[in-house]
Specification:
The chain has 18 helices and 18 strands. By secondary structure, the protein is of the alpha/beta class. The protein has three domains: about 220 residues, Aldehyde Dehydrogenase, Chain A, domain 1, CATH 3.40.605.10; about 190 residues, Aldehyde Dehydrogenase, Chain A, domain 2 (3-Layer(aba) Sandwich), CATH 3.40.309.10; about 45 residues. The longest helix has 26 residues. The protein is globular and about 90 Å long. The protein binds nicotinamide-adenine-dinucleotide (NAD).
């Protein structure tokens, strides 16, 4: 049943009739999918709920084995998956293998190992009043049907990173992949079916934003959303109205700080890869670089050399390092941010050669200096191959400017001194910080990933990512048989003394006080008080 259409502003009004997977290099449509109506989405959730009962009753060890088999299937079909991702996202096939297939394999292996141990019922951990008087166990139950809404920039691994922990926890999932990359969601479901996931437990609805809004309102028990801040706000508002939990992995404007003792060549190579791989369309890419004045010129020169030798072209062509952007509209949006910076006085210090490539699909990797805080490139998310570099007086100014942002997804610090790097990292307002590396944390399966401030809430990946897929249920049973509990009615004349005994047994100042109070309580319990 449709509970509500909670989206205050459905993004596209009328749902698309079909979604097209297009090759970003050519604009050619190579797959089409009928877009689901609101009713189709509701039916997918109902079918998932039906299948979820049996799946939740399947022991967690067996569910974990499906993930293990999925890993084996994915290794066998790795090139096919990477080629699909490259075809509809535009990234080089080798990059799809390294940043999509490999990362998804890590998720499968990590959650298959973690889930049976971590989701086993736990005895309440410490000696408190509750464990003295009661046996307390915590069980971890799936939410039911999870809605997963994913973006197009890492269409396979981001979907896998949300879907796999939800499944192993006993949820059914309805996945709404991005309308730009539907095939990456469809192939994920195909691989899981091949690995033995029962029919109906994972449903894919390859629609547009209207289908995403419909999914949030279609009776799901939890939403895992990855995408832009604007859409994230709409999803959060819809979930709040329905009182369903959601996690939001949103955009960023990640700062990088290059300190004067950094290995500048390494910093230039790392930041070039971090910013320009995936055509700059990475949530955790470095999007603003702050460089200490003493090394600014040498760092900028090293970065310019790196950028000048990048190979730009279609992702399907061997040797390509930077592919096309996903859609012409993304190129246009980035160009507007670039134009704003140049009109306000920014200088282009490096541009990768992109001769003969369509301006509708490609934006040549570009480095800007002389950038100032009012320019859009420093306070908005730039989602493409454009990198502004700012000269700062010292470490403190770098930290102040890095934190002067609405976003707080990730950050990086570059220093030859590990202790200094960690000290600066500790002062940055971000969900994750890398020292002398970049974007790496988002690809690690075993640590939490997510942002602070407008970059989101909740965490994916790691143990926390798994625990967001379950609702803990505390089950309390008697440790001592008695016809009534001490604190139930029939307060009587010893009620105050009884209550005091409980307090003194647990929190009395001396061992003697605690012992006397405990003995008095044990006497009461033995008498069945
Ligand atoms: P987007 O917000 O436009 O779309 C994301 C998904 O939401 C798509 O599947 C879309 O169809 C769906 N959607 C659109 N409107 C909706 C609505 N009203 N209700 C429900 N679903 C709706 O984002 P995008 O352009 O696909 O992705 C790029 C953005 O995602 C960037 O801002 C990037 O930084 C961010 N991102 C964040 C992370 C992270 O881990 N924090 C990872 C990848 C991308």
């Amino acid at each position: 049943m449709l509970l509500a259409d909670p989206s205050p502003a459905p993004p596209t009004g009328v749902p698309a009739r079909e979604v097209e997977s297009r090759d970003p290099a050519t604009g050619e449509t190579w797959r089409r999918y009928p877009a689901p109506s609101t009713l189709d989405v509701v039916r997918a959730v109902e079918a998932a709920r039906e299948a979820q009962r049996g799946w939740a009753a399947t022991p967690v060890g067996e569910r974990a084995r499906v993930l293990e088999r999925f890993g084996r299937v994915l290794v066998e079909r790795r090139l096919e998956v990477a080629t699909i991702v490259s075809r509809e996202n535009g990234k080089p096939v080798g990059e799809a293998l390294a940043t999509e297939v490999l990362v998804a394999l890590d998720f499968a292996q990590y959650y298959a190992r973690l889930a049976p141990r971590r989701l086993a019922p736990q005895v309440a951990p410490s000696l408190t009043m509750s464990t003295l008087l009661k046996k307390v166990q915590i069980e971890y139950h799936p939410h039911g049907v999870a809605g997963v809404i994913s973006p197009w920039n890492y269409p396979f691994q981001l979907a896998a990173g949300a879907v796999l922990p939800a499944l192993v926890a006993g949820n059914a999932v309805v996945l709404k992949p991005s309308e730009f990359t539907p095939t990456s969601g469809v192939i994920l479901a195909e691989l899981l079916a091949q690995a033995g996931l029962p029919d109906g437990v994972l449903q894919v609805v390859p629609g547009d934003g209207a289908a995403g809004a419909a999914l949030v309102g279609a009776g799901v028990n939890r939403v895992s959303f990855t995408g832009s801040v604007g859409t994230g706000r709409r999803v959060a508002a819809a979930c709040a109205a329905l009182l369903i939990p959601c996690s939001l992995e949103l955009g960023g404007s990640d700062p990088a700080i290059v300190l004067d003792d950094a290995d500048l060549e390494r910093a230039a190579r790392g930041l070039s890869w971090g910013r320009f791989s995936n055509a700059g369309q990475t949530c955790v890419a470095p999007k603003r670089v702050y460089v200490e004045a003493g090394v600014f010129d040498r760092f900028t020169a090293a970065l310019a050399r790196e950028v000048g030798r990048l190979t730009v072209g279609p992702g399907s062509v061997e040797g390509t390092e930077v592919g096309p952007m996903i859609r012409a509209s993304q190129v246009t949006a980035l160009r507007a941010q670039f134009d704003d910076a140049v009109q306000r006085g920014a200088t282009i210090v490096a541009r990768a050669p992109a001769d003969g490539l369509s301006e509708r699909s490609y934006f040549p990797p570009t480095v800007l200096t002389n950038v100032t805080p009012e320019m859009r490139v420093l306070h908005e998310e730039t989602f493409g191959p454009l990198l502004p570099v700012v000269r700062v007086a010292d470490e403190d100014e770098a930290i102040r400017l890095a934190n002067a942002s609405d976003f707080g997804l990730s950050a990086s610090v570059w220093s030859g001194n590990a202790a200094r790097g960690r000290r600066v990292a500790a002062r940055l307002e971000a969900g994750t910080v890398a020292v002398n590396d970049v974007t790496i944390v988002a690809g690690l399966s075993n640590v939490p990933h997510g942002g602070v401030k407008a970059s989101g809430m909740g965490r994916s990946h790691g143990e926390q990512g798994l625990m967001e897929c379950v609702a803990p249920r505390t089950v309390v049973t008697d440790r001592w048989a008695a016809s009534r509990q001490l604190w139930w009615f029939r307060y009587g004349r010893t009620h105050v003394a009884d209550a005091e005994s409980v307090i003194l047994a647990m929190h009395g100042a001396s061992i003697g006080t605690r012992l006397r109070a405990t003995l008095r309580l044990l006497g009461l319990m033995r008498r069945g008080a």
